Amino acid sequence: MAFIELEGVEKTFTVRRKRGRFTRTKDEVRAVEGLTFGVERGEMVGYIGPNGAGKSTTVKMLTGILTPSAGRLRVAGVDPQKERVRLAQRIGVVFGQRTTLWWDLPLRDSFTLVRRIYRIPQDRFEENLGRCVDQLELGPLLDTPVRQLSLGQRMRGDITAALLHDPEVLYLDEPTIGLDILSKATVRRFLAEVNARGTTVLLTTHDLQDIEQLCRRVMVIDHGRVVYDGGLEGLQGSDGAERTLVVDLAGPSPAIDVDGARVVRREGDGERQWLAFPAGRSAAPLVAAVAERYPLVDLSVREPDIEDVIARLYRGVPAQAT
Amino acid sequence: MRLHAARLYRTVAAGTFRRYSTYRAATIAGVFTNTVFGFIMAYTYLALWNVRPHLGGYTASDALTYVFIGQSLFAVVAVFGGGATDDMIGRIRSGDISVDLYRPVDLQTWWLATDLGRAAFQFLARGIPPTVVGALAFHLSLPSDPLVWLAFLLSAFLGLLVSFSVRYLVALSGFWLIDTSGTQAAAGILGMFFSGQLLPLNIFPGALKQIAMLLPWAGMQQLPIDVLLRTTASLGGLGGVLALQVTWAAVLLALGRLVTATAVRKVVFQGG
Amino acid sequence: MADIRAVRPLNPVSAYLAVAGMWARSALVYRLNFVLVVVVGLLVNGVEFIGIVFMFMNVPALGGYSLPEVALLYGASGTALGLCDLLFGSIEKIGSRIRDGSLDTFLVRPVRLYPQAAADQFALRRLNRLIQAGGVLVYGLVAADVHWTWGRALMIPVMLICGTAIFEGVFTLGAAFQFWAQDAAEVQNAFTYGGNYLTQYPPTVFAKEMVRGAVFVIPLAFVDWWPALYVLGKPDPLGLPAWTHFLSPVVAGAFCGIAALAWRAAVRGYRSTGS
């Protein structure tokens, strides 16, 4: 049995919509339908999709905040809605845009509260805190009131707060949103380390670099369904993704005309041109064809933009009214 | 330029009016609460006026009118605080106010326009129902002369200006205190006591009554209702009441400008 | 890791104390404001009672009750509300927690929701009301013409505890109501603060229907009116049997039970609908 297990999970909300000035109608909105997947202990899975796809609904069901309308859901063999309080002891959650830290108090105090609430033994608390503080470079900030921390510092504090009780699974909702590059790098390095120590991680994000650097497995969810589940490579190769060949020519030139590629962009009167070609094909014959007929000075190959790839994936799914 | 500014503030006020009109449930809840309080207060006042039928120069039905008009004015004039200045307190606390300071608009006028938009909506939605319900349940002494109503509206508007100036000063205290709950509570209770919300000022004992009638808070509830009940004789009639209200509004708005300037200097030179 | 899993969740009282302690310390960060709130609060909270004193400067009695007798009612109702407000009052802010989504952060902690929500934004400054109302109560007890017996003396603490519990029930029902109508939070003010205002004055002042509502619908009469009828030896305005004057503990218990059921239904509803 997988560590996290969903079987045909559905979640339907009733939404009251304003129709006219006084009339309102009730609409059923399916946030999630027929969700079936499993996550093994120790995996780190990227859970991505556009806004409103059902990502946070899934996380809320996994943590027991929301009760599914139908289907079966187990985390560590436990039904989250029935044993929410007990399960909370075993999971960590970071809501990226909502801090759990205490605004006016030194960062250290928030951690002390976590120790009391989760009944963490003192020695384990100190060990875990020490490790997090060390790796997330929080040492000088422990006595700073949270309101004086930057967004990145606060996020590192929130991640620490979610890990002090040694959770078996960590849910992260947009942990790098709005952070500067250095903070992002620190957070990613740390999360990789957390996962390496055996914690199962489910990562929701819009930042595809998070996924590229951290997750071997990606699930794409859209309109409440899993539309892709597999490695990142598979995602890139799937569904007509394109790589781009960027060529610099010796002088102005009309659009390059070669078989198996098309010009998507020109700059400097054709001195630099972008050629898109299927991701599954080798770049070598294309480069040879260009070099044969045009004064080639320099070139580079760009991997498909993963955001674009996912957008393509979405387009493949029949659109529903939202 | 001035025309442009006037249009801007009108847009701000209209926007706030619309924003408040979307808070439907909150509006209904507020009307309900004001009306319930009206009924409870009505019976305590009746007990009082049953024993002393002409207490403070009011008849029993004057006293009941006082209660329900008071509940009608409650949200509009916002004696207890609340209204647009609460949003301002939030912006000072979060530091967003510095953005407002760089806008080419006058801070005080901006928030006044916002508060007037709010009050206009609340006058219609929260002001009218409690008095209507009260009039259905009790015999109120409401005037039939439209000119008296007009004078009442003018006096209530001046009361709103005074209330805004006080709340604006309270909000400005946030530049120095960060957490303004102390000043808010103090201002709220002073308002409750001296506006006549707690008890009509004309049944306060001797000298305290004379003083309270002249303080700015009287203009928020006591004076507009006295205008409506035509019981303004002791204050020099309608003219005297309005002059007093205009004076306080001018003084407090000017004080607000002065403090704004100091606060801006503090933000600009000390970085908040 | 195994031993962590075996740990039982923190008991609600300790959870409450942990969260409340954090809020209390947060308030102390703004020391100047805290001092201002406490000092000003103590001074001006008394203002409310001054209104009643002013009334009595014009009349010798209100609804057949003297000033010390009204002070006893005012003090008892205010002390009960003050205690409830201090300990559980934050539950009335649940609507804003639901609206901004921060309730979810409470729900992922290994502690029940109620103690967390009750301790949320705990503020020592609410002692103001308690101290002020307690003072008025002491004045009422000393100055009122009470024919003291053991039974009557014992009724005072019973009245305060039951009153606190009844107000807690009202607050909790209001909080449960906010789960499906967050924007209508103000409705509960009619019953909490309105209830407090009502029970400050003698029951004889009000229309019979209002008194009946406070006995049979929302049991505010059992906060102080009915126990005080016994303490002061006053006639019952509804002519109910004398044993009803001792019913406060039963009523408070039953009412809190109903409120607890409503709260549980509301939380379950939230978890099945989100917000």
UniProtKB/TrEMBL annotation, chain A:
InterPro entries: AAA+_ATPase, ABC_transporter-like_ATP-bd, ABC_transporter_ATP-binding, P-loop_NTPase. It is a peripheral membrane protein. GO terms for cellular component: plasma membrane. GO terms for molecular function: ATP binding; ATP hydrolysis activity. It comes from the Bacteria. Its main location: membrane. It is found in: Cell membrane. PANTHER family: ABC TRANSPORTER ATP-BINDING PROTEIN, ABC-TRANSPORT PROTEIN, ATP-BINDING COMPONENT. This is Methionine ABC transporter ATP-binding protein. It comes from Mangrovactinospora gilvigrisea.
TrEMBL record, chain B:
The keyword Membrane applies. The keyword Cell membrane does not apply. The chain crosses the membrane at residues 21-43, 63-84, 123-142, 148-178, 185-208, 228-255. Keywords: Membrane, Transmembrane, Transmembrane helix. InterPro entries: ABC-2_transporter-like (IPR010390). Coiled coil: none annotated. This is ABC transporter permease. The lineage of its organism: Bacteria, Bacillati, Actinomycetota, Actinomycetes, Kitasatosporales.
TrEMBL record, chain C:
The chain crosses the membrane at residues 32-59, 71-89, 130-150, 156-181, 210-230, 242-263. InterPro entries: ABC-2_transporter-like (IPR010390). It comes from the Bacteria. This is Transporter. It comes from Mangrovactinospora gilvigrisea. Keywords: Membrane, Transmembrane, Transmembrane helix.
